Amino acid sequence: MAGTQRYLRYIVFALICLILLFFISSSSTVQTSWPTANVPQTTEPDTKGAVPKPDPLATDSNPPKTPNVDKELPPAIVPGDRMNATFVTLARNSDLWEIAKSIRHVEDRFNRKFNYDWVFLNDDDFNDEFKKVTTALVSGRTRYGKIPKEHWSFPDFIDQDKAAKVREEMKEKKIIYGDSVSYRHMCRYESGFFFRHPLMLEYEWYWRVEPSIELYCDINYDTFKWMAENKKKYSFVLSLYEYVETIPTLWEAAKNFSAHHPEHIAKDNSMKFLSDDDGKTYTNCHFWSNFEIGNLNWLRSKAYVDFFESLDHAGGFFYERWGDAPVHSIAAGLMLNKDEIHFFNDIAYYHVPFTHCPTGEQYRLDHKCHCNPKENFDWNGYSCTARFYETNGMQKPEGYDKEK
Ligand SMILES: Nc1nc2c(ncn2[C@@H]2O[C@H](COP(=O)(O)OP(=O)(O)OP(=O)(O)O)[C@@H](O)[C@H]2O)c(=O)[nH]1
Ligand SMILES: *[C@@H]1O[C@H](CO)[C@@H](O)[C@H](O)[C@H]1NC(C)=O
Ligand SMILES: *[C@@H]1O[C@H](CO)[C@@H](O)[C@H](O)[C@H]1NC(C)=O
Ligand SMILES: [Mg+2]
């Protein structure tokens, strides 16, 4: 008896399941058939005999309801005042798609919340495509400047034959960009002129962005405001040793400048970062200048401009291949007080071939970072960041020794 009852119970249960299944499947048929009910009727003959697809962009009187292509959520913009600041990029028209990638990273991780302006500078005219695409990508105002010829050519005190001979020699030695004239103009421009471009005169703070960079973590605060409130003038995310063949006499030129202009040398400077023997020789340590957030009024100060002019006359931008990174770094190291230079551990960054991925897992999780901490360059022997920490008596972040 008990066996038959259990058997019956199974049959009733199975029946209920079947009925339920029928209802679920029939209601989902109703749902899947819904979008086709909105397809606009076409009276055109269908030559291939296929069912016409709905055009999602059609502006018909009876448009499809999904996808909702022309509406997006309003951007989440951080309220409050903005700083007198801009992004700045030096680029050629041919850099368009590489700078487009960089802009997308900067916008997604930071600027969509702040909408700062973006200044583009070029020794040539920007073409319409460059302007159209970059304007579409930047949330702030975009501005395009042409570099005056005087800022992108050989100064008259440079011996052109001597400079050409150096390029030949560097080419033979296979020094990267060693035979390039334009690379030298670029380095000299970034060292001495970008901050004096008429468009840049309108701002006090800049953030330099190069093509093909990446940002790996959300930046949820105004970095420009942070710099101002904490009295910083210059900042970096990666530091390393310069390729010494490109700057054999740069330190001598910097020492000559210091001797002639003791008034420009900061009391609490970063000599320990720049030199192991109290200034006799250079460590070759520099802040990597393809990323910089800094104060333009400092670069426009008499101290910095005197420094640049002294180096420019020494000729090394053309007779060697001085980069703007060691030039900015030596200037900051000698003429700013230590606490005016900031290491942005929280700005996760990539420029080929190095990555700065913040040390500290909790930070990376909280800021949705997507960099691989194993790729962090900071505690590698070729980085100067540990030296920066030591120069400034700063405690290294927890877990740094596991990343060495
Ligand atoms: N307008 C213009 N911009 C240039 C020129 N050469 C370089 N740049 C820009 O100057 C910056 C530095 O040049 P890069 O070619 O990136 O130099 P780099 O970072 O030392 O080397 P990469 O490893 O190739 O990135 C970038 O923003 C370039 O777009 C040039 O001849 N004209
Ligand atoms: C921004 O800074 C520049 C340079 O210091 C200055 O000339 C300009 O007046 C400032 N603009 C505003 C709106 O404060
Ligand atoms: C040394 O610096 C002074 C002052 O800046 C400059 O006039 C002179 O040309 C420099 N000498 C050399 C060899 O660079
Ligand atoms: Mg670059």
UniProtKB/TrEMBL annotation:
Keywords: Glycosyltransferase, Signal, Transferase. Residues 32-75 are annotated as: Disordered. One of its GO terms (biological process) is cell wall mannoprotein biosynthetic process. Residues 1-29 form the signal peptide. GO terms for molecular function: alpha-1,2-mannosyltransferase activity. Residues 32-44 have a biased composition (Polar residues). It holds the Pfam family Glyco_transf_15. The active site is at residue 292. Gene3D superfamilies: Spore Coat Polysaccharide Biosynthesis Protein SpsA, Chain A (3.90.550.10). SUPFAM superfamilies: Nucleotide-diphospho-sugar transferases. One of its GO terms (cellular component) is Golgi apparatus. Belongs to the glycosyltransferase 15 family. PANTHER family: ALPHA-1,2 MANNOSYLTRANSFERASE KTR1 (PTHR31121:SF6). This is Glycosyltransferase family 15 protein.
